[in-house]
């Protein structure tokens, strides 16, 4: 005969530190379906312990325990979880309901845990609530019910699992006699197709229904008496088909097309042929064969979400902690970035005249010249302010000298000037310029003082000794006139390191670019096979007086390379090479110039002939064809230099090589920049760790109040995986809500809807990547906390946690 539960010589010991006490010892017991068993005995006799071992909540140390014919000696935690879930419905003296859930939700919880499909849950929950006469309270929170009502809900919850064994420890212990009677009656009503085991010290309450009475004393069974025939004694065959229906169903399913699980079971019950429960009038639709199903992901999600919100105090506390952590991490991170950034900007640089942090110097990765469509798409990029197409000019410092005021600084094309002149107007001709000065500029005060008197001042534009063009080289022949001045305010957001910015017409700027190319190329002159190289100086010059295709060379060159100076009519090869292009052309030597004909041939002064002897002169159109091959380098000015990291990334993926001006700075900290940086990073990391532990401690403290909830879930049959997931969802949802809140807050500040300038200034340093990193950090923190907490509650048995909380 196969029994539902069989114990052979089972003993249970409790060991606490150095004392071992006996829960019960050497118990031999068989329990069958249909029985209504009452265990009585004085306090401390081992009743509860026995019940807990039977229901798989506690382990045993000795003997053998068979459940549904299965040996449990090799059971691991997961096997016990499965066992509890499939077979056991627990009812406790103190009800163990989830107080913050409604009656409906408590019953639903047990169905969710046993993996019942949602449609079945909806259909059956009202029936179970009806069975225990609690329909009127369906939507009432468990905390608002009386003890008797709670216990009836607990019974409905145990039934809802559809477990064949109902185990109740002092179910009426906390109830008045009227409620107790009702609970007993209810338990009896549901016992017909189940095994009900009740522990009580008030035997009288149970007496009318009992089929078997077991009395315990001092950890042993001293009496085991059948009182009346059990309602549902099953034959061996019936028992077998009841306990192992899966195999049976598999055989049937192999023969039949699939249909819905529940329908199948009903059909099976009706046509099962084995006469299950024959001879008993009512077929109980609830007492179906136990089936083990996994809790669905949807149920886990629903519980996680429900738990997040259903305890308002806990919700607000957790929210505050998470908000605090998120905001603190964000603010620490931003202020570190801010500090590092201002460190970065403290350097200086010897190569570039315009060292505004907004400037990015671009070349194309494939080395080609910029096209119109390149400029169009660059201009459309996020954070693009303006683009200086050929940017060599802005590093070619120029110098104005006059009696009143000397001015020098980088040169810009006037099309890139955004401001309107404070004094005067914009240039209309190539011989007109506008000066732009910011308050940091060395001659700002002087210019301001001169006011309108500066207009009309005439200057030669001479190159400062920088990049390529030799210092003192006259960039355009005629004097230029100052026609306008822009005096920038302090918050204009741009400056040029104390220089005056000189805006010339785009045409002049373009000419200076070509000149820069000519000056920075390595030029090889090939006089009938004799080559001479020139670099770092300009040797090829344009002159309108030279015919296309011809070159004028000096007398010195003619005598150096040709016998008797007979150079005219011969061919001179010109080879030009620079960073960006290479070009070779042949020219016919048209004239040889010398001191007495240099004025008539080239319009140059005879007195300076010595300076010109290594120069060669070609027609401006030839000169342009060779040196004006387009822009190979441009400067991209950002609206907000703080976003430079993401802008650089975007430019790089668009096919540009990017030079960040501040990266070219010579360290102004005298070599300590790296150490300062490391120090900031370490400090930030430490701050994060401290924040993590503070929030971890606080969150765990808050989650401690959830211990009883999670032990209830386990007692109802939740696996560790289930509770882990539910916990994770709860914490991740909290995190997402606070993260979203902080994101909305920072957005409001960034957009100036909420005006907190100090915060806004800091937030400007955070990029999308930073926000993402923060998100990942919080995610990891939440998962770690979930893991630690779950480890903590699962390191003890469900009962132990439950007892500690009760
Ligand atoms: P009953 O339910 O019949 O009152 P219990 O099963 O609770 O009795 O207790 C049986 C024996 O086991 C008692 O001697 C009790 O002291 C001991 N016991 C019960 N629970 C624990 C425990 N968690 N730790 C140590 N001893 C325990
Ligand atoms: Mg007890």
UniProtKB/TrEMBL annotation:
Region (Disordered): 225-289
InterPro entries, sorted: AAA+_ATPase, ABC_transporter-like_ATP-bd, ABC_transporter-like_CS, MacB-like_ATP-bd, P-loop_NTPase, Sigma_54_int_dom_ATP-bd_1
SUPFAM superfamilies reported in the protein's UniProt record: P-loop containing nucleoside triphosphate hydrolases (SSF52540)
Comp. bias regions, Basic and acidic residues: 241-256, 264-273
TM region(s), chain numbering: 684-704, 725-744, 764-786
Biased composition annotated in UniProt, kind: Basic residues: 274-283
Domain ABC transporter: 5-243
UniProt xrefs under Pfam families: ABC_tran
A molecular function (GO) term: ATP binding
One GO location term (cellular component): membrane protein complex
PROSITE patterns assigned: ABC_TRANSPORTER_1, ABC_TRANSPORTER_2, SIGMA54_INTERACT_1
Protein name: ABC transporter ATP-binding protein
Organism: Mogibacterium kristiansenii
Taxon lineage: Bacteria, Bacillati, Bacillota, Clostridia, Peptostreptococcales
């Amino acid at each position: 005969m196969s029994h539902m539960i069989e114990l052979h010589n089972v003993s249970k010991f409790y060991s606490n530190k150095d004392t071992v006490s006996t829960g019960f010892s050497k118990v031999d017991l068989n329990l069958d379906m249909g029985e209504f068993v009452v265990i009585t005995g004085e306090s401390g006799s081992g009743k509860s312990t026995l019940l807990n071992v039977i229901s798989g909540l506690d382990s045993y140390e000795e003997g053998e325990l068979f459940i549904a014919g299965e040996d449990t000696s090799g059971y691991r935690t997961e096997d016990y979880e499965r066992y509890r879930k499939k077979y056991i419905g627990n009812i406790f003296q103190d009800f163990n309901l989830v107080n913050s859930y409604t009656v409906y939700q408590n019953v639903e919880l047990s169905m969710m845990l046993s993996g019942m499909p949602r449609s079945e849950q909806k259909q059956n929950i009202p029936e179970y609530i009806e069975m225990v006469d609690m329909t009127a309270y369906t939507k009432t929170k468990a905390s608002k019910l009386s003890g008797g009502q709670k216990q009836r809900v607990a019974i409905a919850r145990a039934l809802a699992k559809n477990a064949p064994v109902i185990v109740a420890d002092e179910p009426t212990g906390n109830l008045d006699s009227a409620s107790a009677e009702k609970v007993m009656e209810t338990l009896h009503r549901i016992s017909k197709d189940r095994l009900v085991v009740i522990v009580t010290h008030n035997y009288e309450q149970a007496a009318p229904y009992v089929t078997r009475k077991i009395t315990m004393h001092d950890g042993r069974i001293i009496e085991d008496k059948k009182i009346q025939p059990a309602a549902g004694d099953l034959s061996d065959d019936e028992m077998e088909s009841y306990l192992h229906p899966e195999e049976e169903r598999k055989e049937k399913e192999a023969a039949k097309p699939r249909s819905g699980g529940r329908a199948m079971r009903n059909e099976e019950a009706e046509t099962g042929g084995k006469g299950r429960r024959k001879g008993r009038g009512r077929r109980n639709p609830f007492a179906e064969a136990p089936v083990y199903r996994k809790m669905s992901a949807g149920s886990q999600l629903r519980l996680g979400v429900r738990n997040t919100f259903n305890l308002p105090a806990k919700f607000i506390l957790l929210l505050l902690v998470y908000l605090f952590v998120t905001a603190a991490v964000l603010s620490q991170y931003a202020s570190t970035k801010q500090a590092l950034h201002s460190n970065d900007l403290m350097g200086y640089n010897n190569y570039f005249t315009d060292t505004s942090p907004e400037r990015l110097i671009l070349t194309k990765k494939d080395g080609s010249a910029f096209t119109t469509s390149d400029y169009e798409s660059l201009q459309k990029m996020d954070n693009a302010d303006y683009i200086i197409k050929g940017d060599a000019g802005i590093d070619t410092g120029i110098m104005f000298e006059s009696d009143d005021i000397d001015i020098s600084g980088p040169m810009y094309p006037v099309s890139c000037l955004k401001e309107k002149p404070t004094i005067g107007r914009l240039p209309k001709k190539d011989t007109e310029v506008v000066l732009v000065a910011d308050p940091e500029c060395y001659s700002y005060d002087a210019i301001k003082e001169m006011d309108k008197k500066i207009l009309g001042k005439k200057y030669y534009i001479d190159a400062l000794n920088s990049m390529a063009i030799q210092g003192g080289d006259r960039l355009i022949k005629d004097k230029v006139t100052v026609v306008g001045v822009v005096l920038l305010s302090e918050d204009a957001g741009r400056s040029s390191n104390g220089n005056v910015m000189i805006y010339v017409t785009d045409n002049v700027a373009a000419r200076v670019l070509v000149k820069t190319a000519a000056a920075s190329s390595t030029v090889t002159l090939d006089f009938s096979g004799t080559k001479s190289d020139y670099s770092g100086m300009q040797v090829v010059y344009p002159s309108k007086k030279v015919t296309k295709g011809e070159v004028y060379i000096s007398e010195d060159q003619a005598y150096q390379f040709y016998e008797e100076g007979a150079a005219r009519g011969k061919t001179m090869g010109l080879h030009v090479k620079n960073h960006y292009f290479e070009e070779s052309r042949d020219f016919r030597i048209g004239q040889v110039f010398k001191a007495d004909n240099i004025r008539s041939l080239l319009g140059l002064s005879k007195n300076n002939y010595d300076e010109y002897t290594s120069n060669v002169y070609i027609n401006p159109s030839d000169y342009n064809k060779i040196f004006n091959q387009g822009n190979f380098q441009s400067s991209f000015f950002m609206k907000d230099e703080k976003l430079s990291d993401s802008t650089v990334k975007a430019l790089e993926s668009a096919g540009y090589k990017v030079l960040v001006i501040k990266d070219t700075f010579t360290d102004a900290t005298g070599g300590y920049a790296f150490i300062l940086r490391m120090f900031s990073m370490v400090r930030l990391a430490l701050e994060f760790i401290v924040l993590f532990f503070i929030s971890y401690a606080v969150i765990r403290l808050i989650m401690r109040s959830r211990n009883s909830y999670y032990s209830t879930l386990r007692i109802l049959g939740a696996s560790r995986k289930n509770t882990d997931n539910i916990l994770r969802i709860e914490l991740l949802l909290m995190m997402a809500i606070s993260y979203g809140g902080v994101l909305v807050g920072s957005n409001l500040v960034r957009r100036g809807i909420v005006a907190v300038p100090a915060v806004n200034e800091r937030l400007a340093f955070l990029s999308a990547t930073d926000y993402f990193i923060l998100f990942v950090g919080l995610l990891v923190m939440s998962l770690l906390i979930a893991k630690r907490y779950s480890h903590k509650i699962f390191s003890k048995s469900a009962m132990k946690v439950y007892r500690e909380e009760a």
